[in-house]
């Protein structure tokens, strides 16, 4: 991980100079041009408001011990019950995801056999994890599959290099195929091309390319015979895998892809950029059948987002959940990272330096964070699929914090690194660096969690 200098001061400055929505949108657009990120680092010693930035379906979070998102009056109206109490019990006991869901957590190597770093994407099933192997940061060369049952990996395909300035973006899993797209962010033309490979592997197939507004991709997916995607201005498009032109799917004006076949009336990763992060989703559309379901957000709810079964949002400073039909309304314990539902029933929440996955059905929660020995810092990651991932991972050997201090003026001794028991505010000339020792990740696969939890 990269060196962080004076994290408390940096976070304070970031909070004081937080960009307006338009400026933030430009910042996220620049980040997107550099490709997706998936690492998350947290500090508990920050006495500032928590800052959350969402880009590429991945969360980059700075968390604070003192927060402004405390319970408000409206939160008291949310129904609480056994699932919430079960989750609170799990949190108090500090249970990790491996303890809560032992059959869904496995260890896997950080690198491929030839030394390329792995980046988890999502699950292919209960025992298979889709990965990219990257010779350099966010420049994937291969798609591989790691089998958590056998402990072995296999190559699905070698991704086309695409030429100078070409960057492959994300990947998405369909029933028969895996799709990804590429961009050339250094050129002024808005351009993208799509590629697919069979789930069992083989040579990649270049589906075609798009330009202009059609290249401003919000989310994407793949069916048996088409690549599908939504664009930032709204509307869902498709292109035949066997060749042909892009066309708009009828009836998708004002819709964005959530996860095929579902579309909604709010965008995905571009929420912040479009100023719709607080807008409520009130429509869910099945693009296979055209069936439309109207959703009624509870009074005072903001940022409501729904899967085919559940909705989550914020109400009075707290996270709330309900069924799509409005029933089974409840408070979600702790702080919700973002209003997104993973695997149709899970949300990401956190308390202090521990991030957890919370099951809306059973109320179980399991930690997904590698914590430093003093408990004041930690890190974890999530897969980089276009739709909500089913994979979360963290360093199997925990994390350490190295502190390096440069001597003050007039001192002769050189700066030396040492393991610091705390990432607390550093004196001038000191730096801290989060270190992840060992060769393995622990990986939580939501697809391996049984329906009964």
What would your notes on this structure say?
By secondary structure, the protein is mostly beta strands. The protein has a single domain, classed as Methylamine Dehydrogenase, Chain H, CATH 2.130.10. Helices cover 9% and strands 40% of the residues. It contains five helices and 35 strands. Strand 29 and strand 30 form a beta hairpin. It is globular and about 60 Å long. It starts with 6 loop residues before the first helix and ends in an 8-residue tail after the last strand.
Short description:
This protein has 453 residues and is mainly beta. It is built from 5 helices and 35 strands. Strands 1, 4, 29, 30, 31 and 35 form a 6-stranded antiparallel β-sheet that branches. Strands 5-6-7-8 form a 4-stranded antiparallel β-sheet, with no helix packed on it.
